[in-house]
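Sanity check. The docking grid for nicotinamide-adenine-dinucleotide depends on where the pocket ends up, so I'm generating a full predicted complex first rather than guessing from homology. Inputs follow.
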Amino acid sequence: MARLAGKVALITGIGGGMGRAAALRFAAEGATVVGCDIVPEGAEETVRLVREAGGEIESFAPVQLSDAAEAAAWVDRAAEVYGGFDILYNNASAPRFGPVDELSVEDWDFVMANELSLVFYATRAAWPHLKARGGGVVLNVGSIAGTRGVEFMPQNAHGTAKAGVINLTQQLAVEGGPHHIRAVCVSPGFTVTPSTAWLVESGPQPFKDNISRIPLGRVGQPDDIVNAALFLASDEASWVTGVNLVVDGGGSVLG
Ligand SMILES: NC(=O)c1ccc[n+]([C@@H]2O[C@H](COP(=O)([O-])OP(=O)(O)OC[C@H]3O[C@@H](n4cnc5c(N)ncnc54)[C@H](O)[C@@H]3O)[C@@H](O)[C@H]2O)c1
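Predicted complex below; grid placement will be based on this.
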């Protein structure tokens, strides 16, 4: 029996990386996937790959999720076309980095809009649909950056936004409980995707030192994260809410 049979899953940022892996896996597990991305070409390629594999998927792109009205329009259209949905998987995000005295206010605001507010916008729009459905799952993507500082990356804004995503998940779990809406978060450690692959090749030495100490001896692949997300989104996790599941090969437990 497919683990997401009969479910409709909205996934943000399906244009590449973990979003594409999630679309492929969720569809393979029986979900009808409704994706979106700001970059239409990447989303179209994901649609092609999912359909080629026999999965059900629709994509609306471009969608600028950091615009509350656009995010809501995507969510509402998905609900209208599919008669509701069961899962909102808030995967998309776009960071910017810089030392705290060099990061511009514009860059800070960009990160808050594209890593934190977009989660709120899509969730806010999804909430009435999930309540009407009698329950569902909001699955957020945090990061180990949300619970620590590092010396190899000036991730002040990024880490702050991800800390916000982790805490928002906890509050959503409380507010969602009476409506049978679960809110869960998966926090990846370093994972090789199109936006991070360069770090493995030419990242700074402190970064290389950091990943060389991962207890399980390797960096993450998108499917490592999606496997955890799949469990959390499925009915196997029906008594799991408010958690932040760290998937990082053990890297963040090092002192
Ligand atoms: N890769 C890692 O090492 C890592 C580590 C921890 C957390 N994460 C988190 O995992 C998630 C996926 O990461 P990834 O590496 O696959 O990212 P990615 O950059 O490869 O893909 C993100 C996708 O989201 C889309 N997107 C970004 N902003 C958008 C917006 N405003 N509206 C619509 N679409 C938008 C992008 O176009 C892209 O297709 C992100 O939330 C990221 O912060 C990644």
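Relevant for the grid: The chain has one domain: 8-248.
Also worth noting: The first strand starts at residue 8 and ends at 12.
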